[in-house]
Amino acid sequence: MAAGVITAISIMPHNVPTPPSGFRYYGGDSQPDHLWPEPKPTINTDGATSTLHAMLAALDNLTNAVDTLKGATHNVLADLGK
User: Fold this and answer.
1) b/e string for 44-78 if b means 16 or more Cβ within 10 A?
2) pTM of the model
3) CA neighbor of 39 nearest in space, from 20, 24, 25, 26
4) Are 38 and 21 in contact (CB under 8 A)?
5) How many CB atoms lie within 10 A of CB 23?
6) What digits encode the pLDDT tens for the residues 8-53?
7) Domain ranges, ordered by start, for the chain
8) Is 74 in a helix, a strand, or coil?
């Protein structure tokens, strides 16, 4: 029975730099030229954390405003006897 390699997967170790933009490689299929995918953008976790904390503060303020409006609505309904 004839056999051959169907798939080969390589895992790069941590801290190995990715190839430069425009790097091309041979994929072993009928396409002799493949373009290495562009690296994914890095996330600024400090900036994201700061934004999320600001959102929580704003939501707390909105919650207080909604509670105040609910109280005022109940007062109006009580004044109307409803």
Assistant:
1) eeeeeeeeeeeeeeeeeeeeeeeeeeeeeeeeeee
2) 0.45
3) 20
4) yes
5) 11
6) 777 778 887 877 777 777 766 666 677 777 777 888 999 999 999 9
7) 43-82
8) helix
